[in-house]
């Protein structure tokens, strides 16, 4: 088991925490992480693009000119894909981009992402985040004390003061543990957890 220091908002060591090896010492397999991240990004696609085909576009009911004798190429509709204002060939249509990933694979990938942050020294445990008022300067003071550049801060429950104080700070995201995903972890340099979040993750990911 790995032991990591617990710090306060001023970056002072206030204790130690033993991280469960079942969650934070999982062997990292890039193909699993890749599968889960691709599924996550695919699910965010709306898939509502659509174009009209010859059967749905307005107009084109009558033949533009007679078949023979005009000296021009044959034409059966002025809504042909070859004409300006015509339909589109092989264009996009509404579709569902979601990819199925088993729950066990999702939990495994999350354990791998957490383990990678620990092994790379990019995991920090902060005892709690408390802001007296929703002011950006209060949050940036904590950010500077903890020397955070591009952090993902995970708290047990959403805190209004913390959300409002951090939302205008670039490269900083604050989420609840329910919103934690592999993509979010890998997309940030530092991962910041609280002891309560670690305990809850231990229960959920086993």
CATH level 1 class label of the largest domain: Alpha Beta
Shape: elongated
Backbone CA Rg: 27 Å
Q: Tally the helices.
A: 7
In whole angstroms, how far apart are the ends? 16 Å
What is the mean pLDDT? 93
Strand content: 5-15%
Helix content: 25-40%
Taking the sheet with the most strands, its summary is: 6 strands, mixed
Outline the structure in words.
The protein is an alpha/beta fold. The protein folds into 2 domains: about 1-45 and about 100-205, 3-Layer(aba) Sandwich (Ribosomal Protein L4, Chain: A), CATH 3.40.1370.10; about 45-95, no CATH class. The protein has 7 helices and 6 strands. The protein has helices at about 20-25, 30-45, 105-120, 135-145, 160-165, 180-185, 195-205, and strands spanning about 1-5, 15-20, 125, 150-155, 175, 190-195. The protein has a 6-stranded mixed sheet with strand order 2-1-3-6-4-5. The longest helix has 17 residues, at about 105-120. The model has no long low-confidence stretch (mean pLDDT about 95).
Short description:
This protein is of the alpha/beta class. Helix content is 33%, strand content 15%.
How would the blueprint of this fold be written?
Blueprint: E1 2-7, E2 13-19, H1 21-24, H2 30-43, H3 103-119, E3 123-126, H4 136-146, E4 151-155, H5 160-166, E5 173-176, H6 182-186, E6 190-193, H7 195-204
Parallel strand pairs: 1-3, 3-6, 4-5, 4-6
Antiparallel strand pairs: 1-2
Helix pairs in contact: 4-5
């Amino acid at each position: 088991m790995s032991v990591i220091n617990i710090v306060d908002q001023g970056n002072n060591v206030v204790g130690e925490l033993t991280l469960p090896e079942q969650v934070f010492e999982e062997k990292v397999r890039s193909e699993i992480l890749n599968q889960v991240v691709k599924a996550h990004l695919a699910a965010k696609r709306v898939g509502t693009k659509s174009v009209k085909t010859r059967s749905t576009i307005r107009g084109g009911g009558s033949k533009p000119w007679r078949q023979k004798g005009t000296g021009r190429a044959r034409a059966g509709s002025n809504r042909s894909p070859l004409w300006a204002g015509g339909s589109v060939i092989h264009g996009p249509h509404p579709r569902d981009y979601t990819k199925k990933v088993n729950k066990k694979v999702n939990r495994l990938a999350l354990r791998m992402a957490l383990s990678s942050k620990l092994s790379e020294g990019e995991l920090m445990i902060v005892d709690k985040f408390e802001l007296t008022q929703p002011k950006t300067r209060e949050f940036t003071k904590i950010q500077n004390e903890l020397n955070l550049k591009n952090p993902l801060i995970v708290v047990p429950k959403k805190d209004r003061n913390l959300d409002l104080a951090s939302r205008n700070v670039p490269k900083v995201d604050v989420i609840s543990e329910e919103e934690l995903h592999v993509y979010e972890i890998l997309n940030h340099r530092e991962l910041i957890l609280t002891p309560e979040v670690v305990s809850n993750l231990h229960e959920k990911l086993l």
